[in-house]
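Quick start: read one record
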Amino acid sequence: MPDEAPGPKTRLRATMIGGTAVLMWSTLGLFGAASGSVPPFLLNALCFGLAGLVATAWLALRGRLVLMRQPVRVYAFGILGLFGFHFFYFTAIRNAPPVDANLINYTWPLLIVVFSALLPGERLKLQHVVGTLLGLGGAALLILRGDGLALDGDATPGYLAAVASALFWSGYSVLSRRLGRVPTEAVAGFCLGTSLLAVFAHLGFETTVWPQGAGEWGAVLGLAAFPVGLAFFVWDIGVKRGDIQVLGAFAYTAPVSSTLLLIAFGFGSFTPTVAVACVLVTVGAFVAAKDMLFGRFTKKTAGVAAGERVEE
């Protein structure tokens, strides 16, 4: 059973912490481009393995290793969530046009918002749906680049894999709320288990190509430290204790931030399409977060105007 509903301050803080995961995921494109020709499953094995080992060592040094002692069902849930998403995503982009697969996969924030309505104590409002749809529109602009979808019947397995990847990640994110009593430290074990499964996937589907030189190894370390490491720990905090609908809408800032980072480092140019996408995603995030950002301020102002004492 989950813990009691967090108070407004705790909920806001957890949402902000969870939101940093989205900012970290925006560096995936940049670090990925710098990691050379390392195949994706091997890259995941390296990154999740490094992240899991560092987190486990940190817990051991702080005497908190006991927090990783969790039931098998918890580890099955966490490992299948992390690995399942990545497995189906890579399967999708190999068996369908990458642009189409990416767009289908990027329905996961919208699915998080929709599925969250099934959680105890959560209420789906129109602003959450509108904000998330605006974000999806911005992401679609960036991914499609005005070319439109080119759905191909021969790529059906790839499209189905993209749907599966979206369902895996949205399901993992929403159902994590039901495991509210499981400490975030357990994510270290999720990372280690995901790394092990990624090794098997690599051996079964890929040719081994190791990172070359300090630059590529540095990119691997960057991935392991942030978007394929710390991001999953802070996301766990956000989805368990924060505003999950706002996090879903905010997730659409990842493709925008990623594009802007690539532009800043000379891998692209700022176009009107990018500008419109930025506006759509930003407006969508603010619409979805309206109550969280302005609700308490409005309530406080109304209370002060009425001469009431407002409790923190």
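The CA atoms of residues 36 and 66 lie 38 Å apart.
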